[in-house]
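Same chain as my last thread, 327 residues:
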Amino acid sequence: MSQVLVFNHHSLPFDSQSSARAAIPEFIQVALRCRGYGYNLMLLDESMDPNWFQVQLAPDYAWRNWYEEARNDSSLKEVVRAFRSLQTRQPLLTEADLSEIGYSREVGLEGELKGGSALLACFFYNSFLVSLPSSDEWRKNKISVWVLDLDDNGEDFSESIAELDNIFSTASLDYHKETLDSCRAAQLTTGKELWSKRKEYFSELVFLDELGSQLKNWRHRADILQKARDLLICFNDFACLWKSGEFTDYQHEHLISCGLSVEVSGESSSVNDDPSKRKEREFWLPTGEKVNCQNHAKLADGYRLHFYPDSKEKIIYVAYLGPHLKT
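reply #2:
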């Protein structure tokens, strides 16, 4: 499965401005959560404004109008920030893609005669369509489509039926969670993969160099690494929700709603008050600040993962993965 999302511009416009206004924050939250599965890039049809602003959401209501409203609404501050961070690419299909298809394929909704470019791209990449819930046909987790292939002369053809995975809300994202989890796990089986793909799968985390050395040279049990991977995924999911405004601060308890499956805590006063023990848990951030990464998760066989949640920037720095430090 290619790690791209396909924006379904066919799902626009909404019938009313109020419906569009209500749907956009959830759409942005969905796009942000998809980053945690490695989907950092959204493909746009070349007919669309790559900056989104000129895209018509409803009659006399463009994305720019929503942006101006949201920018002046303090409750949508994090949503606006998330919107500005969306990464897009055009066109939906490159010339090489079209050459592979043979310029002779169409994909369309069942019951409709004309195909859609976003549907074709989603089918070609075997990826996820991201729709806005403007009508019943786009409020489905699976969308039935016909696939028409013409021969080189454009005379003979074959037709088949297929289903496209469609994400249109946080609930539909949860519906596809098992598939998304499986695809992500298959991409992250070794320490080297966790490190090399950190920006792709853990966009809301910062791995310190010390952690990079530990991951790239991992020689320990695979189940410990798997627990660390699942915890990093949990951290990233939390950080996405943190940035979107669902959480106002970091608390260990918040991680539970993001799938936490191990014990997380800070250090005892006997550790924090001992200079030599505290020093082992101090790390330099890329900002030049030294911090106490006392927060840690207890993994199998005495292994620990230490981290530092930055409440100002809403970032989690991950510092250490290895045997229990001095106590």
